Amino acid sequence: PQAVLNASDLTEYRQVEAALRERDEQLRQAQKMEVIGRLAGGIAHDFSNLLTIMIGATGRLLEGLPDDSPLREHAGSIRQSAERASAMTRQLLGFTRRQAAVATVIDLNDVLSSTEQLLRRLLGEHVELRAVRSPDLWAAMADRTQIEQVLLNLAVNARDAMPSGGWLTIETKNIAAEAMPTYDALHAVPCVAVSVTDTGIGMDAATRARAFEPFFTTKELGKGTGIGLATVYDIMRESGGWTHLVSTPGRGTTVTFGLPRAEGAPGPSPPREGGARGGTETLLLVEDEDGVRELVREMLELAGYQVLEAAMPSAAERISLEYTGPISLMLTDVVMPEMSGLDLATRLQARRPGLQVMFMSGYPEPTTRDGGAWAPGSYFISKPFDRQALLARVREALDGTAKEPPRGIS
Asked: Given its phi and psi angles, is residue 240 left (phi above 0), alpha (psi -120 to 50 degrees) or beta?
């Protein structure tokens, strides 16, 4: 009996040891992804500053060129390339989850179209991509960047399941309420869905059962983190949607994700007016990146504003103390040496009650890392931006006409 007890104890010890090793590996993976996320966030911040200069400068160039100038086409190409780079930066931030979710009414056909070129590059030449779009697709409510991330994650998983090449089919479709039990019985409402089907190695029953578990992977050590499908599942759960998987060994895999149908359709972007309204107020501009600061100052001064500029928060504090006239708005970067834009706003508003603040950041929808609140009377503009967007947002802040206050800063 004692020998049997010792053997049982040894088995239990080995199980505990294996569980601890698995937890250690999960912790290492989580720490690795946190480092990658911070690195990506820093790169995106610096890249957004460069894109702000490019988009702003080409915008000014286009405004000054005659309509028949042959240079307009070249300037327009530079502008379009910078805007594409801006979209890719937003996708990078979404992939590392360093961007708060902002749900809007979206067209999944449009999301697929805007992501298709990136997907083809990601898949490589050995995988053929086929996109099938439903012509009468319903609208859905979700964060667009997160849906792009879902598509990228599923494409990466499918590519890795087809090492010798194959086909990847992405199809959008409407699913009536009565057909929903096939996918998810908890969502017995009309849904709009995307199916991602590969011709890869497929999964057996044991793998399918764990496919959405964090850090579970069938790939070799160092070739997979096991967070791709887990992230897809988490995003859809947070978005009020669902995820469904069908797979057969040797016959490929289909992952379908869906969202309840949203009333209405995504509206087109409003056309920009020929010129946003300027003003004569005095503004304090705080930006440590010289190129961005010089460009923003020029944009504001050409619109009639008087601009006091500071390259560092300490210089902004000195200006605020020495300048005897009113300062209507402080326009400040968020991440700067010496202190953050939030801390600077708190200090200046203590001396100048009622000072409006507008934050600039490379994060499309920033959030405070420590859960801190926004400074009272503050607004936000995402880098990169052009002259029209800047002037419109500044005017909103000065007039107090923004639809909703910002929710946090990076």
From this structure: left
SS (H, E, C) 51-86: HHHHHHHHHHHHHHCCCCCCHHHHHHHHHHHHHHHH
Dist. CA 77–CA 194, nearest whole Å? 32
Tokens 């930006």 sit at which residue? 287
- Whole-angstrom CA distances from 152 to 8, 249, 256, 366 are 46, 23, 14, 22
CB within 8 A of 178, min separation 6: which ones? none
Which stretches does DSSP call E strand in 224-371? 242-248, 252-262, 282-286, 306-310, 329-333, 356-361
pLDDT in tens, 224-257: 444 558 778 888 888 899 999 999 999 999 999 9
| HSE-up (13 A, CA, CB side) for residue 32 | 12
Rounded-to-integer distance, Cα 198 and Cα 167, Å: 6
How far apart (Å, rounded) are the C-alpha atoms in residues 346 and 57? 32
Structural tokens at position 401: 């006409």
Task: Report the chain's mean pLDDT, rounded to a whole number.
Answer: 80
Percent with pLDDT over 70 in the chain: 75
* More confident site: 121 or 288: 288
N- to C-terminal Cα separation, the chain: 62
Report residue 355 as tokens.
């000072």
- Residue pair 330/361 in contact (Cβ under 8 Å)? The answer is no
**Cα 397 from Cα 383, distance rounded (Å):** 17
Among 364, 394, 385, smallest CA distance to 92 is for 364
Q: Is the CB of residue 355 less than 8 Å from the CB of residue 377?
A: yes
Q: Closest Cα to residue 90, out of 148, 32, 7?
A: 148
223 pLDDT more than 50: no
Residue 282's pLDDT is 95
Check if the beta carbon of residue 388 is closer than 8 Å to that of residue 278.
no
d(C-alpha 37, C-alpha 99), whole Å: 10
Asked if residue 252 lies in contact with residue 199, where contact means CB atoms within 8 angstroms, the answer is: yes
Structure letter (DSSP) for residue 99: S
